[in-house]
Specification:
239 residues; six-stranded antiparallel β-sheet; two-stranded parallel ribbon; globular
Length: 239
Amino acid sequence: MNTNSNLYTVIYTTLIVVVVAALLAFVSQSLKSRQDANEKAETISQMLTAAQYGSKAELDKLSNTQKLDKYAEEIEKAFVIDLEGNIVKELEGIEVYGPKPLKRQNYNIKGGANKTGEPELPVFIFKNGRTVVPIYGAGLWGPIWGYISFEADGMTMGGAYFDHESETAGLGAKIKDDPSFRAQFVGKTANFADANVIDLSKGGQIDAISGATMTSKGLDAAIDTWLAAYAKYFSKEEE
């Protein structure tokens, strides 16, 4: 075949594209199990931080296996509820909800065109008496999510941890990076009878981050939306 012909160029280019695509697919598939394991361990680390089993920095020193073992040792029960606060299924083994499943449930809570089913709201009760629930929403540049723990009374917050995909370093990223911001949640009371379950604003119940108005508003909306979805569950717990 004439190596200077257009046909040769097309065939050669096509073969290169096919080979590279096959290699990338193989690498991606090979790494998927490791990526899934890392994501699960990170989610557990965030939940344990919210439940006050140590600081995030301390928990990050543990290996993935140690994080899973810590969760298995400290979890008392985990289950999924509906919007009426009824338990619809138990969570078996080490089954947690990271950002990907939370995104899907966020659609379901809000309804609309992207609804993928009835909301599945996970509840994690730890042996120290704290109950951890997740939140998910939109920040300034991308998704934000996190976990909030409640004391046995179902109203008093015991701790919180938040994460993000792409908020601005030194500003919106402080929802994750600034322990003093998260520390404000400890001991505060959630008002499930109000649409604004927790007031996150400048000078509010939780003081918003200076210079990060949109991230703060997004986090406030995410917390209110998700905690409102848990309102009937926590109301039942108080009875």
